[in-house]
Input
Amino acid sequence: MAVERIYVFKRFERFWHWSQAILIIFMLLTGFEVHGSYHLLGFEQAVELHTISAWTLVSLWVFAIFWHFTTGEWMQYIPTTEKVVAMIQYYSVGIFKGAPHPFRATTLKKHNPLQRLAYLGVLLFIGPLIWFSGWFYLFYGSWREWGMENLLSLEWVAFFHTAAAFMMLVFLIAHVYLTTTGHTPTSHIKAMITGWEEVD
Amino acid sequence: MAALVVAFNASALQVKPDIAAAQAAYNGKEANVSTADHSKFKELQKNFRTGPEVTQACLICHTEAARQVQHTKHWTWQSADPKTGQMRGKKNIINNYCTSVVSNEKDCMACHAGYGWKDQSFDFSVEKNVDCLVCHDTTGTYRKLPGYAGHPVYKRVEFPRGSGKFVEAVDLKKVAQNIGKPSRTNCGACHFFGGGANGAKHGDLDSSLQHPGKYLDVHMNEQGLNFSCTTCHATSSHQVSGSRYNVAAAVTGAASIRGKVDASPASCQSCHGNKPHPESMDRLNQHTEKIACQTCHIPEYARNDIGTELSWDWSKATTMDENGKRIVRKDSAGRRAFDSQKGEWKWESHVIPEYRWFNGDSVYKVIGDKIDPMQTVQLNVVGGSPDDPDSRIWPTKVHRGRQPYDTVNLTLTVQHTGGEDGTALWHNYDWQKAIGTGMKAAGIPYSGKFDFVDTELTWPITHMVAPKEDALTCVQCHSKNGRLKGVPGIYMPSRDGNQWLDMIGWTAALLTLLGVLAHGGIRILTSKKEG
Output
């Protein structure tokens, strides 16, 4: 079978992806320590590094959002119902039989329909939940100044922040695994490193 | 970069260096340079026979001094609760140590800033009975002993009786000619030894503060800031600022300017403000909304070998040895552990405080108040709650005790302990007689039946501030079993969390992991079959 290579991930996108990956994994690690799940770096250190990572990620996101809108790449996340059922069938049955992948990535459509839905969920649900709860968590000391001390409770802010962190963790596990489901187990990962994806 | 370092150092110090230097100088030698040499005053060129005679001489020039003192707690031993009007103070409350001053005035008034308070008939309006010298002596020779109702020793006496040790008569002329500002020694003579032994009562006040190292007290360290007591307890018209009865528990705003009338100097915030940490540590400043400075900066109290008393069990008193003789025993550190006169004590050094919400108000049990003997009697109830914006989490010393109460009238009893008369407990070892005399003196009914009840006394800790390097670290509270375990009303990361969320979250993550592993496993198996 002839292997074709197409250019799917541009340089900024790859930089964004990997730096974001490192930051998110590190924030999960430090975040759950702050939450009290284990002792690793020490509470004080964990809080410090979690906060620095948060600000770094915020800056990264500012650039990423700018990039997505100026390049029109945001359209990659528009959800579609086309081939969703075929994708589910492929992951649950076809993949074990060596059936062909129902989706063929192109430069214009780099995400399969399930990816689109999953990433949109991350961007529009987990993201905002984690950012808003994290923001209030970080600025707990300013609630009074903002006149919000009676509207918010740290307990619930922490609850939503932790809940979002668990969702991110679940996403991370599934996401890492699904990178092995390309043309070869490593072709998706290679694509995210070099930009070039091997397709059937 | 150099500029940055300088800026950081300056902000880290927080109290302006010039003020600190001036303060240190003020408390040092220069402080003793007065504009008046009292030894040259003709009023003081005489051989005084008694304390009141000295006071009369003082009042010739210091015309208002006695009346000022008569408006202070040092004289009245009373303090009105500003909210309820309840009269508290040593004169009215029952504490967990020697319990009550009533009927024991001759002994207790060794620490009264006055002369002659020997019973309920004492006249609080007599100016010459104000004791100037106990606070203003600089010679260290003016000593008041129990048994003299506040008078110093005018004749050489054996003390304690039968000990073979003697206390010399005081040279009042010399003392009067060498008066000065109150020093640590003056304040400490009573406040270090409250409860009948060095460090017994407070835990954050004992004789080690006479010459503390930086480790023990960052402000009073003689090689450093060298504060005296009155540096913080700034005094005006003899009114000493700062009181356990009305604690400034939640001072807000910037550091106050000295001389402003509304300033309460005896608080940390008076000099440091309520945002004392540098901007780079702003998260610590946020903590001042909920936590008293003392909570982090006095990580332990009684940080020395002197230690402090943590319990006093009066029910063990009057237990004698097999020959019917008094038993006196010390603990391994040389602190009183048992005495047939007084009962059993437990001491501890380097004590970790117990933490409570506190708004500065305490409601005290006063003589005659009803109690519930089925429960531990709280001799004072510390006010405050997490919902109260004027409350902070404070470190406290909780002293636990056991003392007698009237089983019919349900009041704590007043007992006549000190003295050598026919009913004093420490002389006769007879509770019934001692309580009878005490209750009569206090003027409250006694049924004739008594038993013992558990009691607790809770005091905020505020002295012995440690250097900043020794302050609590985050994890000492932010952990499951940290210092603030059980303190209600706040969400603390690491200490608190929603157990359901944790269970559901970790289960979801685990199931996802198992799911992808199974999926991957099947893929490997099926691809091998095909291959």
Remarks:
- Chain A touches chain B at residues 33-37, 42-44, 47, 91, 95-98, 140-141, 144, 153-155, 158-159, 162-163, 165-166, 169-170, 173-174, 177-178, 180 (CB under 8 Å).
